[in-house]
Design brief:
Elements (H helix, E strand, L loop, with lengths): L1 H10 L13 E5 L8 E4 L2 E6 L2 E6 L5 E5 L4 E5 L6 E4 L6 E4 L5 E5 L1 E4 L2 E4 L5 E4 L5 E6 L2 E6 L4 E7 L5 E4 L3 E5 L4 E5 L4 E5 L5 E6 L5 E5 L3 E5 L6 E7 L4 E3 L5 E4 L4 E3 L4 E3 L7 E4 L5 E5 L3 E5 L7 E6 L5 E3 L3 E2 L3 E5 L4 E4 L4 E4 L5 E4 L2 E4 L3 E9 L2 E10 L3 H18 L19 E7 L2 E9 L2 E4 L9 E5 L10 H8 L4 E15 L2 E16 L3 E8 L4 E7 L6
Parallel strand pairs: 32-40
Antiparallel strand pairs: 1-30, 2-3, 3-4, 4-5, 6-7, 7-8, 8-9, 10-11, 12-13, 13-14, 14-15, 16-17, 17-18, 18-19, 20-21, 21-22, 22-23, 24-25, 25-26, 26-27, 28-29, 29-30, 31-34, 33-38, 34-35, 36-39, 37-38, 39-40, 41-42, 41-45, 42-43, 43-44, 44-48, 45-46, 46-47, 47-48
């Protein structure tokens, strides 16, 4: 696996180890601001409170000035030449110029010899790059030119919903429908979803989006005849940036509409709004935070699993690497953070982040991180017979040299009290044969009840050596000194702590002598495979 790690480093030399997007905080404003009482124009945040309308620089968070207006801000024109505000309960609104000076108050409109008055729920929005103001109140909607002081058009329509405008359309929508009109107030269409609407938004370029109480998100493009259902879901109010790429919620969650994935960030858990070119993200609530959005180019847009391997040998293990690819092309290695799955755990399975081959066959593995997934198909191949022989030869050499198994932490005559691990037992016919302590893969015991280790058991299942045949044992250790056969078979069970490590039906035990006087029992199951290697300081019974 070390070679695999080196290869990954060669393939992806600039991999980082964290994928969440951190957005720098540009400014903080310690005022309570709600989205319905604020707007962003250029680099300025406008918001109203009981003292009037505040103008705050988004770059520094400093207040530019405070205007003596009503406590409700309705809108600001694109070029910031005009501002509309009112007192919350008033049935009229006031127009201010770019200096914050009052131009006039409007409490009614005259159109085609009819006089129309407003209720306190007045809504007003400027058409983009225009002095034309769309006014909605008391089930009428008007198009009013501030410069000429003339009503250009009007129509009767329910005004209970939220008023929004784009480059080509005027919309007003409630929880059951969204009316779409052109800039002459001519009806284009009415969107009537089968589900109740929570909120909606529209970009300047006419992309409409809304979410429902079932959490679904629908998107429309002009002329709004067909919707696209997003795989994203949210039950919070939404705000779409003007590029149509980023979707923010009232709970501070940010989504990428192109990938339909959440973008994990450090954004405060407050309502998200965007400035006009999406260079800044602003959260509104008990306080206002302004974030520089430049790092959104580092958001994950796709993922893959490193392809330095496409096969695996039975019993071998490897650590696959999940590689997240960002919008700017940056590749991020996520070895430990990804969640791994195998579609066939009988062929290969994951344990503590490692992929382990179990039996020959084909398998597909899947890695997931922050909603992004990648898959890789693998072939698990059978290990050659030589591998078992090599493993057995290594065991034989260590047995003859040290009187223990490869990688065992203790050997014969070590103090039994120094073995620190988990209680373990081996049973035959449900009776305890050895009661000892597991340290790593090895069970240590003292069958003579002395203070030193005089028996060591190695279950072959923990070594992932479950297909060692009797002939392979003979090829390495030679013919046994004695052989004991059991008919019917004898049941065996190995426990570690409160868990059963494995269970078998034992048909044969072969006895060998190693390191002159030590006894090695090789214990076979009914299919002829070796299941345990049990080492004794001397032949049991001697």
């Amino acid at each position: 696996m070390i070679a695999g790690i080196i290869l990954i480093s060669i393939l992806y030399p600039n991999l980082s180890v964290s994928a969440s997007v951190s957005l720098p905080t540009v400014a903080q404003i310690n005022d309570d601001v709600i989205g319905q009482n604020s707007t962003i124009r250029g680099n300025t945040l406008y918001y109203a409170d009981h003292e009037g309308t505040n103008l705050v620089d988004l770059e520094t968070g400093t207040r530019l000035r405070k205007e003596d207006t009503g406590d409700t801000l309705l809108d600001v024109s694109t070029d910031e030449s005009w501002m509309i505000a009112k007192e919350f309960w008033h049935t009229y609104f006031t127009i201010y110029d770019e200096f914050g000076e009052e131009v006039r108050t409007v409490d009614n409109l005259r159109y085609q010899n009819q006089v129309y008055r407003f209720n306190s729920g007045i809504q007003a929005k400027f058409l983009p790059n225009s002095s034309k103001l769309v006014i909605a109140s008391d089930d009428y909607i008007f198009l009013y030119d501030i410069k000429t002081e003339k009503v250009l058009s009007a129509r009767g329509i329910s005004t209970d919903g939220t008023l929004k405008v784009s480059n080509d359309y005027i919309m007003i929508g409630d929880d059951s429908s969204i009316h779409v009109m052109n800039h002459a107030l001519e009806m284009v269409t009415e969107i009537l979803p089968q589900e109740r609407i929570i909120s909606y938004d529209v970009t300047l370029s006419n992309t409409l989006i809304f979410n429902t109480y079932d959490g679904r998100i629908y998107q429309y493009k002009s002329p709004f005849t067909k919707s696209v259902l997003s795989s994203l879901k949210t039950y919070d109010e939404i705000d779409l940036d003007d590029s149509g790429v980023f979707l923010g919620t009232s709970k501070g969650i940010l989504y990428d509409m192109q990938t339909a994935k959440r973008i994990y960030t450090n954004i405060d858990e407050s309502r998200i709004v965007f400035n006009e070119n999406s260079s800044k993200i602003v959260t509104l609530g008990d306080s206002v935070r302004v974030y520089d959005a430049k790092n959104l180019k580092k958001r994950i847009v796709s993922a893959k699993i490193s392809t330095d391997f496409n096969s695996l040998i039975v019993r071998n293990e490897t650590i696959p690497t999940f590689v997240a690819i960002s919008k700017d092309g940056t590749k991020t290695k996520l070895t430990n953070q990804a969640v791994w799955r195998s579609d066939n755990s009988q062929v290969a399975y994951f344990s503590k982040g490692k992929l382990i081959g179990k039996s020959p066959g084909k398998v597909t593995i899947k890695g997931s991180y922050e909603g992004h997934t990648a898959t890789l198909s693998l072939t698990v191949r059978k290990e050659s017979k030589k591998a078992n022989l090599k493993w057995l030869m290594n065991q034989k050499n260590i047995l003859n040299q040290k009187g223990t198994f490869v990688n065992a932490s203790h050997q014969f005559y070590d103090s039994y009290s120094k073995v620190k691990g988990t209680n373990g037992k081996i049973y035959y016919q449900e009776k305890v044969y050895t009661n000892g302590i597991f340290k790593g893969n090895v069970l240590y015991g003292t069958y003579r009840n002395k203070k030193t280790i005089d028996e060591i058991l190695l279950p072959l299942s923990v070594e992932k050596r479950t297909d060692i045949s009797e002939q392979q044992i003979i090829d390495v250790f030679g013919k046994p000194k004695k052989t004991y056969k059991y008919d019917p078979a004898v049941s065996s069970k190995v426990t570690r702590g409160t868990s059963i490590l494995d269970q078998h039906q034992i048909k044969k035990i072969s006895l060998y002598t190693v390191k002159k006087n030590n006894a090695l029992e090789v214990i076979y199951d009914e299919k002829g495979y070796a299941r345990y290697l049990h080492l004794f300081e001397s032949t049991p019974g001697d």
